[in-house]
Each structure stands twice: as C-alpha cells, then as structure tokens.
Amino acid sequence: MSTRKKSKIINDPIYGFVNLPGDLISDLINHPYFQRLRRIKQLGMTNLVYPGALHTRFHHAIGAMHLMTEAIDVLRSKDIEITNEEAEAVAIAILLHDIGHGPFSHALEHSIAKNISHEDFSALLMGKLNKEFNGKLSLAIKIFNNQYKKKFLHQLVSSQLDMDRLDYLKRDSFFTGVSEGVISSDRIIKMLHVKNDELAIEEKGIYSIEKFIIARRLMYWQVYLHKTVVAAENMLVNILKRAKELSSQGEELFATPALSVFLKNNYTKKDFEEYPGLLETFALLDDYDIFASVKIWMHHKDKILSALCRSLVDRKLFKIELQKEKFTTSYKQQLIQKAGRKYKVSDKEAAYYVTSGEIENSAYKTNIIKINILMNNGKVLDIAEASDQLNTEVLSKTVKKYFICYPKTLNTRP
After folding, report:
1. pLDDT by residue (tens digit) across 356-409?
2. 357 belongs to a structural domain
3. Of residues 88, 74, 82, the one with CA closest to residue 166
4. What is the model's pTM?
C-alpha cells in the first residue's frame, strides 16, 4: 500500500490558505536558513512610525512564492510552455530571493559587512543549500542569476513587475495601513503573457499597471523613505558604527557570539567566498542579536554609544531635515560643533550625533527591463509609451532628496 504525503498549507493574512508546491519546497522552508527569516522584520525600523509593520521576511517570501505559483498557472493556461521542473525551480528562486537579508533588512545592509549586498548573501546561501540538497537547486540558481535560456522566468523573480514587488506592495500596505499602496495583484497576474521570451501584460491590464507604478512611488515616500524611518535607521547604523569602533580599540562589548565576530572585523565579499564558516556565522544573525545588544549598550560607559542606544530604545528619535539641495558643509559642521559643546565630546565623536545623506525614489526606470504591454494587434510597447495617463518624463525621473539628522535638543535654525 502506497503512502501519500499530506499536502502542506500555510494560512497567510493576505491570500488565505497558501499551498506549498512539493516536498522540496517544504524542506527548504523548514531549513534553519529560511526559518531565520521569521526573526527579521520586513520593514526594519518602520514600526516606529507604523506600529503594525511587524511582519517578517518569512511572510513576504511565502507570499511571493504563492504569487509565483499563480503566475505559472496563468501562463500555462495561455499555452506558454513551462515544465514541472521549471515551475518548481522558479518557485524556489522567488522563495529564496531574500534569504540573504541581514538584521533589520535594508537598514543595516552595509553595516554588518562591507561592500556585499543581500543579493550576494542570497546567492552564497543558495549555493550552500544546493550542496546540502544534492544539486536540486541548480536550475533555481540559474534562473535566479538570469543564466537560464527562458529569460521570462528570471523576470518573474526580478524585474520591474516581478512577484517580489507585487507581494511587498500589497503586504506592506496591509500591515502599515497605508491604503495608497493597495494594488490589484490578482488582475495583474491574470493579464500576464510572454512575447519574444519577455514578460508582457495584455493591453486590457494597462490601468492596473498604471496604478501599480503610482502605488510604488507613493509607498516609497510614505513608508520606505518616510523621514522618521530614515532618521531611526540612521541612528541604528551609527550605533553599529560606534560599537565597531569601540571593538576595534579593544573594548569588550556585550554581544551574541555571532554578532561579536562582525563587531571585531570588517569582512568583505571575498572573505565570505574564501571562508565558508563565515557565512554560517552570518546565518545566525537576526534582529534579536542587534536589539538585545542595543538594550544592554544603553548602560555602557561610553556616553556616545549609551546615548544613541537609549534614544532609539525610548523612541527619542533624531530630528530630520529634508531638502532638494545638498546641505552645506558649514551647516553640518555647525551642528557637529553644537553637539560637541552640548555633550562635551570632540568634533570627531560629535559626528555620531549628526548624519547626512540622500534618498532616491524612481517609480519606473526606462534603462532596465521594461514593463511590456502586449497590444491587441500583437505589437509590444513599453508602458511609458502605451499609457495615455502617465507622463513619460515624470514617470522615469529619479527624485532625489538630501537629509540631515541630529538630536532635537540641539539649537537649530529658525
């Protein structure tokens, strides 16, 4: 008598019951590398502005995989040839696309290690998983890296209209309560097609795409680049920077074993490629390592580290100014000098209290994989050309703003 494995489902707050397509995917979800995503918030410090934004990378990865299985079903119904092996591989590719995210997602992207992105970490971890699963992820990795012959499969994973974006806009809108981010992912997926080995949207879906692009722009300003979120995340970056500086000077700081390794060293991508054990240590890090340390560091004898940590824990966040032009060096230096006098530290140390930088928002980039509209006559047009509602110049323009953060207790200009 043959035994049939019971199909597994996950109850998702956005889509309802999500079926896990196959035992391999179930095994990957149960792996410690993937379970770690339960302990990494999707939106970093955004819950300090939108209290509901406590969902995790785990939620998002499951949701993106669910949308991928729906997209595959739709394309197959339109006679697009996708084998069972390809369907499983592209589902794995989207499931694991964020597996390399570090603590607090994008907030600490370049603070844990130098010049290595979460995409790089994802690729390295997928490589390790492929060895562990005896090469069963080889096709998924090819699709993830855009090295497979069917280019549209990679576009489902990474493009300007991929399953990643469809899920995070809908999910982040739900958990933040920002209704401007609501999109019709169901309709967009129903309108999917493939033309000349590229993803396309049927002409009757053009208005859903227009709303998708506008929703993305609004979500960036209202959520991802919200000025208070930017201030909080820069405070966290400076906390890690100060902790690393103290560690380099021989100061013993409280930290989990995994975090301690990264506080004492500035590893690069080359180090991770040469020392496989280092990647294993990175895979032990999550939000809990960071925030447990921040809570302890509130009481550290270093007054800069303790002040920054206490401000973040108690949500006494820095003031932030935004403008279209760069802040002058003299203005920043003036704030640093004020911080130095107020907190009785050197100008070099006072720089931890004053952070400047820039943020960018681009709703649609015409210089990368475009969103194709498949017209009723069979012709394929770029959305910017096909749309009669969206101004192409405005649509493709990158809006850049400059910011400067500092404690509210500093005297500022009127």
Report:
1. 999 998 878 877 778 999 999 999 998 888 887 666 566 677 899 999 999 998
2. yes
3. 74
4. 0.93
